[in-house]
């Protein structure tokens, strides 16, 4: 139907949404195969090193037979180039093939994807594998990701559950989750500053927790405090994370590069946040948000590694090209 209503389209690409490690650079090369080298269709494959045997169904009185090896001359995996298998990541074809209902045909070519990029989400157990592949080999966009260097956390409703207990002698008490304190400690060990903010004067509460964090209490304008901290530390907003739960946190949540709320945060705060914790405030939400930050850091490190590898490969190709040019010039002189 798309082709019928899009007469200007000459090439159609079908990309599997369940193949999350496909990179734009792969698709550019595929487009070149069709537009510059004259292929009618290109599909993705991956190289596998698997020995195949014929299937013997239950009740059949026969033995299995090797399909792609000689057991008498069995070679090691690293000495065998392997075989190419479709991985279903994408199918590109010219218009006339699509109109006939074909994904492949005419002058065909395959595009071999790297094994680490070839992952498909088909059943539930594929999710954790895909997640790890994406963190290590996924595409993270043109703009370099920034490390979070500051987490600002609202005390009431995030670090605590928002409840205030009053004793008989009129002293106030609050409760907190030890897991959240561990989360703050882990953030500090990763070089991330943690600062706390509250609209109330909860100095005694902070003193009892002994967190060792910079804190601003009786903050009538949380956004102003956040902006002051961001400027004083010389950070971009992408390097700032904010965990809040109330209407007074909304503008801070919108400003921060990474934002989160506990599961029991108010509706307007949830709408403004990029991440909603499964845990309630004062019940592990800070620790959970810390883990979310650590996942981003993994993406940052992976993206840097990809950029370094790409840069190194580019310099190597440039060096080889310069060497070939030098050899040609030398041959001309001879």
UniProtKB/TrEMBL annotation:
Pfam families: CTP_transf_3. PANTHER family: HAD SUPERFAMILY MEMBERS CMAS AND KDSC, N-ACYLNEURAMINATE CYTIDYLYLTRANSFERASE. Residues 308-334 are annotated as: Disordered. It catalyses: an N-acylneuraminate + CTP = a CMP-N-acyl-beta-neuraminate + diphosphate. It comes from the Eukaryota. Keywords: Nucleotidyltransferase, Transferase. This is N-acylneuraminate cytidylyltransferase. Belongs to the CMP-NeuNAc synthase family. InterPro entries: CMP-NeuNAc_synthase, Cytidylyl_trans, HAD-like_sf, HAD_sf, Nucleotide-diphossugar_trans. The keyword Nucleotidyltransferase applies. Its EC number is 2.7.7.43. Residues 315-334 have a biased composition (Basic and acidic residues). It comes from Calidris pygmaea (Spoon-billed sandpiper). One of its GO terms (molecular function) is N-acylneuraminate cytidylyltransferase activity. One of its GO terms (biological process) is N-acetylneuraminate metabolic process.
């Amino acid at each position: 139907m798309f082709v019928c209503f899009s007469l200007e389209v000459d090439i159609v690409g079908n990309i599997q949404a369940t193949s999350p490690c496909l990179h734009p650079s792969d698709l550019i090369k595929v487009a070149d195969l069709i537009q510059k080298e004259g292929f009618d269709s290109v599909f993705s494959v991956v190289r596998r090193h698997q020995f195949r045997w014929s299937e013997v169904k239950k009740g059949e009185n026969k033995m299995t037979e090797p399909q792609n090896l000689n057991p008498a001359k069995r070679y090691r995996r690293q000495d065998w180039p392997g075989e190419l298998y479709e991985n279903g990541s994408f199918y590109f074809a010219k218009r006339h093939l699509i109109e006939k209902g074909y994904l492949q045909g005419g002058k065909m070519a395959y595009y071999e994807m790297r094994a680490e990029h070839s992952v498909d989400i088909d059943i539930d157990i594929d999710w954790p594998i895909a997640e790890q592949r994406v963190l290590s080999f996924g595409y993270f966009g043109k703009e370099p990701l920034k490390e979070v260097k500051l987490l600002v956390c609202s005390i009431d409703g995030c670090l605590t559950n928002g409840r205030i207990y009053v004793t008989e002698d009129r002293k106030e008490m609050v409760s907190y989750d030890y897991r959240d304190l561990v989360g703050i400690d882990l953030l500090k060990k990763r070089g991330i500053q943690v600062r706390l903010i509250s609209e109330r004067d909860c100095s005694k509460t902070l003193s009892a927790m002994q967190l060792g964090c910079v804190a601003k209490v009786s903050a009538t304008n949380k956004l102003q405090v956040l902006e002051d901290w961001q400027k004083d530390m010389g950070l971009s907003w992408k390097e700032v994370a904010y965990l809040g739960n109330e209407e007074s946190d909304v503008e801070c949540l919108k400003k921060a590069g990474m934002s989160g709320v506990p599961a029991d945060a108010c509706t307007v705060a949830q709408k403004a946040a990029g991440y909603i914790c499964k845990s309630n405030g004062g019940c592990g939400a800070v620790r959970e948000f810390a883990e979310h930050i650590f996942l981003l850091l993994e993406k940052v490190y992976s993206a840097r590694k990809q950029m370094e590898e790409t840069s190194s490969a580019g310099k190597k190709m440039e060096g080889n090209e310069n060497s070939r040019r030098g050899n040609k010039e030398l041959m001309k002189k001879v």
